[in-house]
Specification:
By secondary structure, the protein is an alpha+beta fold. It is about 15% helix and about 30% strand. The strands form 3 sheets. Strands 1, 2, 3, 4, 5, 6, 7, 8, 11, 12, 15 and 18 form a 12-stranded mixed sheet that branches. The chain has a 5-stranded mixed sheet with strand order 9-20-19-16-17, with no helix packed on it. The protein is globular, with a radius of gyration of 19 Å.
């Protein structure tokens, strides 16, 4: 199943729904409501097996609204935690995996489909980049989950764009703090949560990302240095993860590029779906468009272009 939060033209709080071939079907009557939309989705994750028969009936017979007639919201609008992998894809022709590491990204940075990424009015960050990632939706409480039992802690999957401010080259602003990944609007999530049974192997899905129609990220999750079971073991070995928390699995930096004012970005993950966001920069800064070409880029063309010439 593909679970969403959506708003109707009438407004009001987002309500839970199913994204089906017929359109978007409300499942609010079958779901225990929470105090917030995030709380409702947490209850849905916790109660899923009990309410699944009712959801399957609604998917077949419930009133379906055309997708064009609703507004999808982030399926997890305020996760308790967003853990994000640092790198985690094979790059630079590496022969050995780098040590697994993660950082915490600000949950208040979450936005959803058709929302706008707003670049901050600070002049110290040098550039702003996109990182398109598969994210694991946790079913908790999950603590010290061995990699062989990773499925017990994963409810499903969604997409996350880890928007990142860079201080110099590819270094995250500010150095050592990872604060450059937590500005408001820097965590677009969506378009839905695909339940775990819908994706046979999370380490075999394709991720693509376009800026104004130009394909940038274009990779398969089979290229992770540390695979999904290890990510679950690592994260739950450090802290308890609760239902609706997220683990973003990292990105292949070969597709990095700048984000700048007026651009339209599209993000698609196989088995999850596609979403669009917009970019606004009050300062109207500009950078070279396309795949990042700085001296420390991992893009092969950039490496050739920036290789020091013999005197």
């Amino acid at each position: 199943m593909r679970l969403v939060l959506f708003e109707t033209a009438a407004g009001g709080d987002p309500q839970p729904g199913l994204l089906t071939e017929r359109g978007v079907v409300s499942i609010a009557p079958a779901v225990r409501p929470g105090h917030t939309p995030q709380g409702t989705m947490g209850h849905l994750i916790d109660d899923f097996e009990a309410v699944r028969p009712a959801l399957e009936r609604l998917a077949r017979t419930g009133e379906a609204r055309p997708l064009a007639d609703v507004r999808l919201r982030p399926p997890l609008p305020r996760p308790g935690k967003i853990l994000a992998c640092i790198a985690n894809y094979w790059e630079h022709g590496a022969l050995e995996a780098r040590p697994l590491n993660m950082f915490l990204k600000n949950p208040d940075a979450v936005i959803g489909p058709e929302d706008t990424i707003v670049l901050p009015e600070l002049t110290e960050p040098w550039i702003f980049m996109h990182e398109a990632e598969l994210a694991l939706v946790i079913k908790g409480p999950a603590k010290q989950v061995a990699r062989d039992h990773w499925t017990s802690a994963v409810f499903g999957y969604t997409g996350l764009i880890d928007v990142s401010a860079r201080g110099e080259g590819r270094r995250t602003w500010k150095a050592g703090s990872w604060l450059g990944k937590s500005f408001d609007t820097f965590a677009p999530i969506g378009p839905c949560i695909t339940t775990r049974d819908e994706i046979a192997n999370p380490n075999d899905v394709h991720v693509r990302f376009w800026v104004d129609g130009q394909l940038r990220h274009n990779y398969n999750t089979d290229d992770m240095e540390h695979l999904v079971p290890e990510l679950v073991e690592f994260a739950t070995g450090i802290m308890t993860l609760n239902s609706g928390d997220l683990i973003a699995c990292g990105t292949n930096h070969e597709g990095l590029g700048p984000l700048q004012d007026g651009e339209v970005v599209d993000f698609e993950i196989q088995g999850i779906g596609r979403m669009r966001c917009y970019v606004r920069d009050p300062l109207k800064r500009t950078w070279e468009k396309g795949i990042y070409m700085g001296a420390d880029s991992t893009n092969p063309e950039a490496v050739r272009r920036n290789r020091p010439r013999a005197s």
